[in-house]
Amino acid sequence: MTALAGGWVSAIASDPALLAVVLLALGLLLTTTLMLLGTLLLSRHHERRARRAARVRQQWMPRLLGMLTGADDDPETTLPRLARRDMPALVSLCNALQDTVRGVSRESLQLLAQRLGLIPELRSWLRRGDAGRQLDALTCLGQLRIDAAWPDIQSLMDQDNTVLSLTAARALVNIDAPRGVPEILQRLQRADWSESRVTALLKEVPANTLIRMLQQNLLTSEARAMSAPALRKLIRITNSLQPHQVEPLLQLARERFPDDAELRSTICACADGPQWLAYLRTATTDEYWPVRVQAVRRLGRIGEPADRIVLAARLEDPVWWVRYRAAQALLGLPDAQRQALQIMARVHDSQRVREILAHALAEVR
């Protein structure tokens, strides 16, 4: 047998191609074995972590619910033991419960966090943790309204990670809305902060606080130096949340950026009141067709019967959407003469006018 083995070894050693095949096979075998061992170890690690998380939930769920509902607010009560490695599970549980149980006092939870030494741990996550830990820490610190963490949270608002920066903004608003809202308004130039996300964030601010902050923001030099895209975003957000506060922003946009077509379109979409009628009438002939669309739409809502002539002229606009919105606007004007429009739809010289009026009339039958 020894001689046979020696023969195989000799044969392999003398044949480079066979030696390469054998070494490759051994390498694959070793790699596969290591992958299996790694998978096994990782699986056991996840199982242990899941068991620890379940134990934390079992021990802490009743206590946290009692604190949130006021049934257990004794600051001297004995607490279950909590290892440092179990803090992430407790923070996740605390965040989930606070999102579920709203409108309750946070004082008992603040005392609990202090007793457990959780605040320094959460702040260390903000500075050195991975993204998941940072998000959990931001949510928890914001919900607990930990003012001491403000500098750490504020520094994350300028991170490239969109979710992380918006979560930091939300945390600041939760801690102190009057201080947090200006921080958000100063960063509206961020393209990744969409209008819908910022609007959803500012919806959490009490209405009177938001109104005051918007009014104060307009008086700052930073606001008056705001870029056109940021101002456009602020106008749309304000019009969505507090439409009666948008007028000064519209005036600012008209003064500072008269040549910005997208801002002109935004002004037309948000303009309200007779002071804007002259602007809207002029905008119906704007060279940028989205401006014409918004102008005729708005005239249909706030225009006067005399604007029928202005809108009728746009029924022959080269852009279908302008013609369509003009036809709708004519039907929406005060004292709209539906019968006259029906006649025009049948006998007008222009096929464009006949077709668009017939289309609009058919929609309101």
* SSE string, helices as H and strands as E: HHHHHHHHHHHHHHHHHHHHH
**Number of discrete helical segments:** 21
Shape: extended
Major sheet size, sense and barrel closure: none
Determine the fraction of residues in helical runs and give it as a percent range: over 70%
- What structural category characterises the helix and strand content? mainly alpha
How much of the sequence is in beta strands?
A: under 5%
Computed over alpha carbons, the radius of gyration is 33 Å
Q: What is the residue-mean pLDDT, rounded to a whole number?
A: 84
Query: Separation of termini?
Result: 99 Å
Overall strand count: 0
- Spans of at least 5 consecutive residues with low confidence: none
Annotate the secondary structure layout.
Elements: H1 2-14, H2 16-69, H3 87-100, H4 107-115, H5 118-128, H6 131-144, H7 150-156, H8 162-175, H9 177-185, H10 195-202, H11 207-218, H12 221-224, H13 228-241, H14 247-256, H15 261-270, H16 277-283, H17 289-302, H18 308-313, H19 320-332, H20 338-347, H21 351-363
Helix pairs in contact: 1-2, 2-3, 3-6, 5-6, 6-8, 7-8, 8-9, 8-10, 9-11, 10-13, 13-15, 15-17, 16-17, 17-19, 19-21, 20-21
